Every structure is written in C-alpha cells, then in structure tokens.
Amino acid sequence: MISIKFFFQHKKYFASAFLYSCFSLIFSTWVTYIPHIAEKIGITEGRIGKAIFFSAAGAFFMIRICRHFIDKIGVGRYTYFALLIYCICFFGPFLAYNYVSLCISLFIFGMAGSSYAISLNSLTATIEKQDGVYIMSGSHGFWSLGGMVGSATGSFLAALMHNPILHISVLVLAIQIIQIKLKSQYFFRKGEQPLKEIHKPNKTRSLVVIALVGLVVMVSEGAIADWSALYLKKIILLDIKYIGFGYSAFSFAMMFGRFTGDSLSKKLGSWLLITYSSLIGIIGFLLVLILNPIFTIPGFFIVGLGFSVIVPEVYRLASNVGGVKTADGVSFIAATTNIGFLVGPVLLGFIAELKSLHLSFIVLTFWVSLAFFIAFWKFKRNI
Asked: What is the pTM for the complete model shown?
C-alpha cells in the first residue's frame, strides 16, 4: 500500500486524511447505537428508519449553504470547526426523549455531517491542487479504516461501558485532543480566489456527467450496505452466522483499493481508472448473481475493489472542472451521491418486493454498466 506509507511519512497529509477517520468513527458509532435509541424511545426499527430521513433532509439543506462559508472563512478553518460542531451535534440523538425530538436532533446531525463532508472533501481537493499531490483516494481510505475500527469496537465498548453518553463523550474527547495536535497542519489552508465565469452550460454539463457516475456508484454502495446480508440469507440461503461476510468483504476491499488508488490515478488518469474500476465492479456483480456462496462472497469483494476508487476520482474530477470553484464542485457531487446512497436502496427494495431480490441485483449490474460506458466515452474523448 504505497499510499498509506506516504501519509505516515508526511504529517500534513496525514492530518487532513485522519479527518476522514474521525468522521467515520463517529458515524459508525451512531449506527451501532440505532437499536438502543429505538428501544429507549420505544419505537420500532421501521419508524426510526423514517426518522433517519430527517438526517438526509438536514444534509441536503446544508449543501447549498456551507460552500459560501467555506469561501468566507477558509476551507481549513471551516473544516476544523465543522468537525467540532459535528461532535457536539452527535449528542443530540442520544439526548432525544421522544420521536419528535429525535427527528429534530437527526435533522441537525444531518446538517452538521453534510457541512463537514463537503468541507473535508473541499480541503483535500484544495491540498491536491496547491501541493500537486494525489491524496484523495487514500484520504477516503482513512474513512474506510475508521469505519471498520468503529464498527469492530463500537459494540464492545458499548457493552463494556453500559453508558452511551459516556462512550460517545470519550470518543469525542479523544478526537478533539488529537485534532488540537494536528490542526495546525491544515487550519490555515484557503481555497482559490473567485474565478472568472465561463460559458455556464459547458461547466454544468461537465459536472452533471461526473455526478452521474458518482450517482451510479452510490446507488450500488447503498444497495450493498442495506441488502447484501438479506441477499445472502434469502437468495443464497447462507447460514445466519455468515450473512455479514458479504458486506465485510466489500468494506475490506474498499479500504484496500483506496490506499492504492492515488498511484493508479496518477498513472492512468481519472477516466481510464474509472473505466477499469467499473468493469471490475460489473465482473464482481456477475459473480454475486451466481447462486453459490463460493462465488457470491468473493463477488462482493471484487465489487468493493472496483468501486473503491470511483467516488474519490469523481470528487477529484469535479474539483478540477474549469471555471468551477472547488467547494462548488464538491457540494454538487455531495448532493448527487447522497441522493443515490439514500434513494437507491429504496428503489431496489421496491423491485425486490415486486419481483425478487435476485432481480434487484441483476438490475444493479446493468445500472453499473452505465458508469462503465460513460467513463469509456469520456476517456476516448480526452485522448
């Protein structure tokens, strides 16, 4: 893993990349406690699923707003304070005492998370431009790493402490202490100066094409996160002890791929890398469709390997569209990919209910083919 070695050799790049781990540590801990919060308030898991949509609404609300604040106070400074606010808002769902207060707290938590995500990716894109380095994919690798650590330790620490507020307080305090040590490495980073306008349809068209690729991949990622265990249980008929292996294989491959993605991007270019990666994803889905766990679980691994670098490349491409400020390009991609991650699983669930879950994954395979053809077309045009 050339990329991860590079981060540990350069403190200023590790500092910005570790921000992704902070994000995923908080998010994965929140996911761990969803059943606890549902039980505390006395609502069904289905009803808490509806409440989570308030988090999505809050995320969309902030997308158009925070980029203006990034321009005003600087991307580095904004990212640090966005993390601080995200940590504070993290307490909201745990302090909720009824369904209404939970929905309100999740709306605010979604706003804070969206603001942090946009500023974080804007910061990474700014560092790439200013320093002439490739760190976007590896930085996203730290998200995957933090998520795996958070998922692995969250349940254990929850059982050990028997106090959610104490647990998240320790986590938040540890993150803030580490950031006090690291923030000088990125705090004073500022984005580019206002750009001259170019013909608007051209830049809009470029962003829409890039965003469409991100949408395709995030629909698929969301589907695998929500449906992989059920697919292994109901379609592959795997023992319940092993149904988590599909998503675990997918997640590990995502982490591994992201720590090698930057060097591949430098050699191949973004569009050729996305072309190869989406093709690998299609091959993985074809294996998933074979009704045998010997093929299905490795199939999820291969899908993760293919998908791992696509979203970081999409952010990289969007931040380099001529005439578009980094924060504007990143916020546009964030809006599109969030829609895909949240809406995609719902649509696939509708197909599964109407026909079968196997058909949903067949549809997903054809859907990923769209990303392949777009990337191949863009690569050919850019030669």
From this structure: 0.86
